[in-house]
Specification:
mainly alpha
């Protein structure tokens, strides 16, 4: 096993709950010398705070370095087998796949009647899961068994199987088209984020026109409707039509009349709530946002299904991401920073477990919270975790705006000696990523000129000029995306009026709330 694979073994062990570790040790404690080796290696890896292969070999003289690679590979398989057994009772799909394996074992032994009896039980169970791939697998075995289990209604059985297979294949075809499109759109989003101009808009529109047939959604199954709403939501999110994003997110969430008991649909429900919260925060729907966020947070207490690590991490990142969004909406940066300081240790432990995209967005939100609170050194610390990241092809838009905020933060700290260097560095990055648009050019030019000696009154005039330029830009079809990432207009107004950013945003929120009440 390579060093990288050894890391995988270590992280797999560290991901296990106490009950899973206990099950593994009981399951593999049969007194044999061979199994005792696996258990000793398991304990040694489990006790390490950070992975150190050399130390394991040094402290365990029974380990033969030449055979260590095989020992680790076998332990990895044993753990996976143990986890499969442990979770099979709470994971319907794993249980059904296991039953399909038993059908094959019975078939291979010519025990056709027993195989068919088991198949009929599986067929009843599988209809509840809405897993089309497994349903098709069961039908394949039903076809295989037909010649060996002939009966009086054989032709009717054949016709029924063919009809079921055709229906499932038709649904699977739609699901594949929708999931293929979803994967393609997600890949584009993970690279560039929101559309940057007409070329990006035409590209997204072309993908939709070429790949999405005209279907009647009324004929769709529950799963197909979920995918359809997800695709439509993605399209409107790309072009920043957040009212339509909100409408489709509502449809998505409203499909669930109660909290789902299936792990797959439970995860889809969480994703739908996340999209709804994103739309509610963009549209400043304060009351709805608070209610939806409470629903999301309460799901952590859900006990009808076993919440696995994947769902736990998703709940964690969505809950805190939207906690931050709530602070942004209300301009409550001080509260946000207080909360961050309380959860910092726990936050760091989760960061290594979330995907790189979520990690990047989390760093950006934290940096913006500290910026809004006036804690610029802390903001730079989190911005540097983005700027120094090796994954600069993930969310190029976030990387670009992190560099813009980094420049503004250095300006706030009075670091005039490094601003020219960072301006040149940011120019190069934006040109490389093809993301040097009007918004970025205005700010870079503004900061570049500030390095010269100017009077306080001239400075205020320049702040006003930049604010007016950006307000006009915020109405642009494509340039408005910049204001999704950072409320720079409020920052400029804070400099013009000599107030904190938090105070400026809170004043704006009060005006908006009064207007909403009046309407």
């Amino acid at each position: 096993m390579s060093k990288d694979r050894s890391d995988h073994l270590y992280t797999l062990i560290k991901s296990m709950k106490k009950s899973e570790k206990r099950y593994f040790k009981v399951r593999n404690n049969n007194g044999s010398k061979e199994d005792s080796k696996y258990l000793m290696l398991f304990d040694a890896l489990s006790e390490q705070e950070s992975f150190n292969e050399e130390l394991i070999i040094e402290k365990n003289s029974w380990i033969n370095p030449k055979q260590f690679s095989n020992l680790k590979a076998h332990l990895y398989k044993k753990i996976l087998h143990s986890l499969k057994e442990y979770t099979s009772s709470s994971n319907e799909d794993i249980l059904i796949r296991e039953q399909i394996d038993y059908i094959q074992i019975l078939f291979d032994r010519s025990l056709y009647q027993q195989s068919m009896q088991l198949l009929q039980k599986v067929k009843k169970a599988i209809k509840k899961s809405d897993n089309l791939e497994l349903q098709l697998e069961v039908l394949k075995w039903e076809k295989n068994l037909l010649p060996y289990t002939l009966g009086r209604n054989n032709i009717q059985r054949v016709n029924q199987i063919v009809e079921e297979a055709n229906t499932i294949n038709e649904r699977l075809s739609r699901v594949n088209i929708l999931t293929n499109l979803a994967v393609e759109l997600n890949a584009i989003y993970l690279k560039t984020g929101y559309i940057r101009g007409k070329e990006d808009k035409d590209r997204i529109q072309r993908i939709f026109d070429e790949q999405l047939p005209e279907w009647d959604v009324k004929d769709f199954s529950f799963r197909e409707k979920l995918l359809w709403y997800e695709i439509q939501l993605s399209y409107y999110s790309f072009i920043q039509e957040f009212t339509e994003v909100y409408n489709y997110a509502k449809k998505w969430v409203d499909l669930f009349d109660q909290t789902p008991n299936s792990a797959f649909y439970f995860e889809m429900y969480i994703k739908g709530l996340n999209q709804l919260l994103n739309a509610q925060s963009r549209l400043m729907k304060f009351e709805e946002f608070i209610e939806t966020h409470k629903v999301l947070r309460d799901l952590a207490k859900h006990r009808l299904i076993g919440i696995n690590e994947n769902i736990q991490i998703r709940l964690f990142k969505y809950s805190y991401a939207h906690q931050f969004n709530g602070y942004f909406m209300l301009g409550e940066f001080s509260k946000g920073v207080n909360m961050l300081q309380r959860i910092e240790t726990r936050l760091e432990s989760y960061i290594g477990m979330i995907d790189k995209h979520s990690e990047l967005v989390l760093f950006y939100k934290i940096a913006c919270l500290y910026f809004g609170n006036g804690n610029y050194r802390k903001s730079i610390k989190w911005l540097n975790r983005i700027i120094n990241s090796e994954d600069q092809d993930i969310r190029e838009d976030v990387h670009s705006f992190a560099r813009i905020i980094n420049l503004i933060t250095h300006y706030e700290l009075g670091n005039r000696d490094v601003i020219d260097y960072y301006i040149r560095s940011t120019y190069r990055f934006l040109l490389k990523k093809d993301d040097l648009h009007a918004f970025q050019q205005y700010i870079l030019e503004f900061l570049k000129n500030l390095s010269r000696e100017i009077t306080p009154n001239q400075l205020i005039d320049r702040f006003k000029k930049l604010r007016d330029q950006l307000i006009e830009l915020s109405q642009s079809k494509y340039d408005k995306r910049a204001f999704v990432y950072f409320d720079i207009i409020s920052w400029l107004e804070s400099k013009i009026e000599n107030r904190s950013v938090e105070d400026v945003i809170k004043s704006k929120i009060k005006v908006k709330q009064k207007k909403m009440l009046a309407d």
